[in-house]
Amino acid sequence: MSIPNHILEQLNSQADLISIIGRHTTLKRAGSEFKGCCPFHGEKSPSFYVNPQKNIYHCFGCSVGGNAISFLRDYENLTFIEAVNELSKQTGIEVPKEEQQNVSYQRTKKQAAIKPASRAPAAETAKFQPAVDNQLPASIATDSQQKNYTDQPTYYDHNNHDSSYDHNYENSYDSYPPLDAYDSAPYPMDSYPADYQDATNNGAPPAWLTDTNAGAGSHSDNSVSDKDGNLYDLLEQIQQFYQHNLTIHPHAKHYFLSRGITEDIFETFGLGYAPFGWQHLEHQFPQDIEGLKALGLVRQSESGRDYDLLRDRVIFPIRDNQGRTIGFGGRALDDDVKPKYINSSDSPVFHKQHVLYGYYESRQQRADSWLVVEGYMDVIALYQSGIYGAIASMGTAINESQISRLLTLNPTLTLSFDGDSAGQKAAWRTLEVALPVLADDKELRFLTLPNNHDPDTFIKSQGGDAMREQIKNAMPLSQYIFAYLSERYDLTLVEGKAKLMSQVRSLTMALPKGSSFRYLLNNDIYQKLGGKRSQNKEARDALLDFDGDMTISQQLQLCFLFQPRALLEDPIESIWQQAGINRINLPAHIKEKASPDILRALAWEDLQDDALLDIVSTIKRCLNYLPQDANAAAHFILSNVKPITQEMLSRNWGGFYKTLTTRNILSLDELIENLVSQLLERNMKKKIQELIKNPDHIKLAIVRKQTQLLNDWLRAQQAEQSAQMVTVQS
Q: How much is the pTM?
């Protein structure tokens, strides 16, 4: 299977190399890089470096180096195709199943250029030109007007047009002037120089556009190029064409200047202008029609007539991580024109969901913090103010792999969305996407600017220093969640609090396994809703008031019956990870002799409690079928456990449920974690006593180390809870 080079480049540049290598060795930040002990030659002093900017690694000890594909191939023993497929899954970049998808296209023999007609009488000019630039001739409009506006220009409104345009939309081009009439006068004469094709040094196009040996822009060479065209090369030439047009169209240049953009930024971001006319790209690149269509910059109507996607719009070139132009965004000069923005469609070199506008430019400035904004102008305004690291997605929501990569470059990521309803919905969707990659050492912050400002308008109004202060004081994720949800539920009602907590629990379940933030966030919001006493204390008091003589196991069984979804993520595994027992650091001689079984996390079977195992296994088996109502779910579970388990639970369930609901207990997460911890502690002490009686020094050393880690974690949890209670009471 032959995989195009540009796909391999995208896979390597988008891969989360820190996470991939971090599965095999511990990496720590060292300036702008990460370092650790080389996984290839087992050194003791770190000489292995990973550069997240370039997404490559190198060991100064054994000289091994490469990218994501080479690491998967060389260290994880994957074949080349397996490594590519693995990265495809991780990044979401599709590997083409057919070999023909690449960056080459067939160039064609050039046609003789048609020079613009000399100025025609006013009546004739009006006859041959559309009334408004963004209006297509009707026979083009009819087959396109229902298409997605993100990929299509704005169409002529036939309900509000001059009577001279009254016609049947099914008519062919026969009812219009011949197409070459449009070709001969593609640009309004007052905005596009009449002598453009023969321009001299005064406002002349760059040499590559007019040089007869230059290829794409040549009009006199009738031969076909010996080589196929390359989409990257074509895009670069189109970018230069658009950029040159900005210099000779004052009204387009004035748009950027009026927005406060300086001319040096024009060059940095390659800003340009797509002129009036339906076929200006075909005129300038007559050999490259196939390439223009592959890029989606030239479209074809059902009648077979070609037209340019971007017309009379200022242009924002879109670059990949290597700085190559891969697409364009076009913004209408008139705010009344809809859609205001049009982006290039996906092509063999441009995939919207994998591109962040401004990422390349920020990397060039060695940005060390990252800010997600909504639009091109926000990125540019921030950059011009010296605030580097602002990026924007391509009209689609930023995805998990992009967030993961940004959090690798800096553990804090700030999101700045408009304060209107649409902006806040976008911020919330981004929050949900980010949660699965939000490890405890990562932080998400939210910035909503005052007075409905976006970054562009705020900087113009308040200046760059004020913007830096706003970014510095962006709202942490925990505060944002509570603020966002509290506006949507009536917290004066118990029902509103319950709904809010239900949504918080759903959110926190998306956090990575073993996340301490999950516990802390739930607890923080419980206390915000529950008044002065924490939910955990309320739940413990309720349990003691109900029946103080129950065993820990019986208490836990009733808690699981009240909150069965606590078993969605196994509490034992969660505690094992939070306490760091799964990452136990053993001496080499013990590690060599230890059996894999002794190092695994405890399972419910190891607790040797038949009733508890019955309730846990039944709940796990029935989770997908449980009713939402807690009481109904409990009776569903009771009908599926063994009779002996059912007898004890049925006897106690009614009173337990009434006690909890009377106290308005919203969650038992902390209480369940506490009860499970006590069971684990008792089980491990019992195991130590057995190993002392029947000596097994290797197992004994390991269990003692595990018990020590568990006890250390429990003491830390108790200290944290005590500190929280003191804070609440004060």
A: 0.57
